[in-house]
Amino acid sequence: MTHLPKIGKPATNALDKINVTTLEQVSKLDDHNLSKLHGVGPKAINILKEALNEQGMSFSKLDADLSDLEFTVLGDLKCDNAPKRRIVRDIVIASVVGDEHYLNEWLADDFIWIVPGEFELNGKAAFIEEINEHLQKVSSLEIASMLTHGKEASTHGTIINQTGETIHFAEIYEFENHKKDSKIKKITSYIIMKP
């Protein structure tokens, strides 16, 4: 594990906040997304790029469809030949930004959202309304893992709001069928919020 070079206190603190403390972890990020973090400026990006090059590493490449987001998205976001993995990734992002078009496209009409111990919502309209009522300005979204198999998928990660509030989530997805363009029938979400 290679320690981070001296990139200044604001940049170091920004990376520390998202649990990035080594160059190996930096190499899994893309510079475009990383530069969206408050405190990480062009000088820090250049220092990190040089340090990565010296170690035979480089920044990851960002999928073009993620470049328009106003916040940092972290994690193994490549979907390659896994269409359901892309659907899960994009549903998480659409839920964070309140993208009604995408949610309407990929959630089944009889969609169910369950947050155990809290509530159960029926219908994608109820889900979209609930999401939009609680939209917050996001600083970063980390999708730590995504797994898909047949009609099922799961993901977990962390959302950090611009206010500093941290939200950890784990979600289990059930698709309508095994087809690669199947809609999501049910999401069970486990959520932990920390001020």
TrEMBL record:
Keywords: DNA-binding. The keyword Acetylation does not apply. One of its GO terms (molecular function) is DNA binding. It comes from the Bacteria. InterPro entries: NTF2-like_dom_sf. This is DNA-binding protein. It comes from Mammaliicoccus fleurettii.
